[in-house]
Specification:
148 residues, elongated
């Protein structure tokens, strides 16, 4: 009987690790999606047992080819205008940025004054769920905290 409980627990832990790509796709949570004339941006994370994974942002051209990525625990906002991309972090560690192939933007601004408590992944996901947005698909719902 102890062996049964041990293997049951082991199986539960293995399934909870999200190590299989299919399971990851099921747990993908879109935070924000945007586009302009030459690029599509998807900001997402994965739901894990203990919380959320690192934030990922994919930049793809109109033919769906990857032209850059960002991976950071500290990302708190993305803004896109016609020729300006603004990235906001709540920590000065911006080592996960790899957007050198993106030529669509004349200006790329990096701001490290973001607010973790108000615009961290957990706060944003809560606002997305409260707004009844389908977070398993691309959406452009602005879940940024606003003071009223």
């Amino acid at each position: 009987m102890k062996l049964f409980y041990f293997f049951s627990l082991l199986l539960f832990i293995i399934n909870s690790c999200n190590s299989v790509d299919k399971v990851k796709q099921q747990n993908k949570i879109f935070i924000y999606s945007a586009s302009n004339d030459c690029v599509n941006i998807d900001w997402y994370c994965y739901s894990n047992v203990g919380g959320f994974s690192i934030s990922k942002v994919d930049f793809k051209n109109k033919s769906d080819k990857s032209i850059g990525t960002i991976e950071s625990f500290y990302l708190s906002d993305i803004e896109i205008n016609k020729d300006t991309l603004k990235l906001q972090f709540w920590n000065s560690d911006t080592s996960g940025i790899n957007i050198s192939k993106i030529s669509c933007f004349k200006n790329i601004k990096v701001d490290t004054t973001g607010n973790q408590n108000k615009n961290g992944i957990d706060a944003r996901v809560s606002r997305i769920i409260d707004a009844k947005i389908d977070y398993t698909k691309r959406h452009n719902f602005d879940s940024k905290w606003k003071s009223y």
